[in-house]
Amino acid sequence: MNKHLDKYKKISDNIIKKAFVDLKGIRIIYIERKFKYFGKALNFGFFNVVMINPVLRTFSDKELKGFFAHELSHIQRHRDRGFFEKIFFIINYLFSEKFRRWEEREADKTTIKIGYGNELYAIMRKSYRISKWHEKRLKASRLSLKEIKFYTKKNK
User: Fold this and answer.
1) Dihedral (C-alpha) 66, 29, 74, 86: value to the nearest 10 degrees?
2) Are the CB atoms for 72 and 23 separated by under 8 Å?
3) For residue 59, is it left (φ>0), alpha (ψ between -120 and 50) or beta?
4) What pLDDT is attached to residue 28?
5) Is the pLDDT of residue 45 over 80?
6) Residue 109 contacts by C-beta under 8 Å, 6 or more apart in sequence?
7) pLDDT, tens digit, for every residue of 22-37?
8) How far is 144 from 142, CA to CA, in rounded Å?
């Protein structure tokens, strides 16, 4: 593993220890490669993959915590689904933009519920500054900065 992947794994492990006890001991593979998104969590049944764009190397630890808490929220949410729910999820995620938006917003809410609202706010704020494309895509599919603040305050 390179030094960045080591750092990402350490941050993820700390989040799992504090907030995702059910994910303790599961196999998560971290892959760093350039693609249009900052990251993506994928579940393949017996193992999970978190893909990470190298642009995250420039992000602070606080921002990275927001990123990994969000991606781990996806993994936890997927693991909580039954077999038929997973089939339903996969089909809808592939073919429905409305469903993908719902899932992203729910992962944001889960991130806030587990105590990483401020970190989620930090990464979203930074992400808006990366490019207009990222800002537009994130505003269309994720909680707004105002919503993150609201839910974080409500969660405390």
Assistant:
1) 180
2) yes
3) beta
4) 94
5) no
6) 143, 151
7) 999 899 999 999 988 8
8) 6
Query: Mean pLDDT score of the chain, rounded to an integer?
Result: 93
70 CB burial (10 A radius; 0-12, 13-18, 19+) = buried
In the block, residue with structure tokens 């764009």: 53
What are the two backbone dihedrals, phi and then psi, of residue 95, each rounded to the nearest 5 degrees? Answer: -115, -5
CA distance 136 to 68: 21
| Per-residue confidence (pLDDT) for residue 1, from 0 to 100 | 56
Phi and psi (nearest 5°) for 106? -65, -40
From the list 108, 128, 103, the residue with the least C-alpha distance to 118 is 108
Q: What's the CA gap between 92 and 89, in Å, rounded?
A: 5
- Helices (H), ranges, 20-144: 61-79, 83-95, 97-113, 117-130, 132-141
Give residue 108's identity as a one-letter amino acid code.
D
